[in-house]
Design brief:
The protein is of the alpha/beta class and 385 residues long. The protein folds into two domains: 235 residues, 3-Layer(aba) Sandwich (Aspartate Aminotransferase, domain 2); 133 residues, Aspartate Aminotransferase, domain 1, CATH 3.90.1150. The chain has 14 helices and twelve strands. The strands form two sheets. A seven-stranded mixed β-sheet has the order 1-7-6-5-4-2-3, sandwiched between helices. A five-stranded mixed β-sheet has the order 8-9-12-11-10, covered by helices on one side. Helix 3 crosses helix 8 and helix 12 crosses helix 14. The protein is globular, with a radius of gyration of 21 Å.
Amino acid sequence: MPIYESVAFEFNTAEDIAANFRGELPAHVYSRTGNPTVEYLERKLKVLTDAHLVLAVSSGMAAITQTIFTLCAKGDNIITNKNLFGHTYALFNQNLPSLGIETRFADFENITELIKLIDENTRAIYFETVTNPQLEIPDMDALSSVAKKYKLVLIADSTLTPPNVFNSKKYGVDIEVLSTTKFISGGATSVGGAIIDNGTYQWENNKNLAPFAAKLGKDTFYGRLKKHIFRQFGSCMTAHSAYFQIIGLDILELRVERCVENCMKLGEYLSNNSKVIDVNYPALNTSMSYLRSKKYFGNKPGAIMTFDLESEEACFAFMNRLKLIRRATNLNDNKSLIIHPYSTIYVEFSPEQRQQMGIRPTMMRLSVGIEGAEDIIADIEQALS
């Protein structure tokens, strides 16, 4: 697929361009609203996920934001887990309330508590398939059951579990959002996100989309998203980013398999190292999320693991001695990356908030890449010595 770097696209006649603006002639007009290279990535993701429709956007955060803006209006609320990726938590806890959209945080292990938060203004339940960096996996069957009973949209952020290991439609997810910067890109070549509509929700049940449902049917969410949110907010993916991610998508499964294999070898090594206080990777049978990892992802829960040393100072000293593993904040990269979440991603939160979210000063997050497992282990070994 070539890179269509064009900003605008020419029409043969004035009648044709007028027909396009009336919605009668499908065509590319302006790359902010649609581009052939970006559309090709969307089509590949649609086939891979068996989705109804897919929209590629400029980042994972853009995917989350525009999904919420499409579903909610001032006075509405959403319900989500108390443990979330730091920037998502900040969006929900700081930005959305300033726009009149409330976020209600629940313990997703207590479904009764979650149900008590639902009222007539609740529009969606939002969850991460694997929380980052706590590595918790929610009971998706229970969440799906609640969402269906109360006619709520179920939204999943599947960034840590790519489409080749997680079938969101199978587990009742209506809308899937993910950062394509991560596993889809693979080599950290480009930033992007995707909004995946599984075509499973009855949009007349959402008061903000009901006026569109009679005309658009299953296309209601995508129609409102594309025409009323995406176009005005200008969060388009570039043609070059789409091109890089098309290449990354073609070898996604190979990379995921290698990363998971490396994680298992690292998990065994770290679990038997006396200098390591704690190790967590959902595919390890010592993890609290092990059974759900097997159930939902075939025990391939992405490539993120955490481990603790005796102190924050020990973590910093260890990280500074690493030679192969990079000190960086991305994840699901081809390269192995490490970060200290307490002092970086979550530094803006109080110590009490960090403790409540399971972010410890002794914990490091390791995103495992596709290097040889022996090389990664050797680097950790020399850094621990």
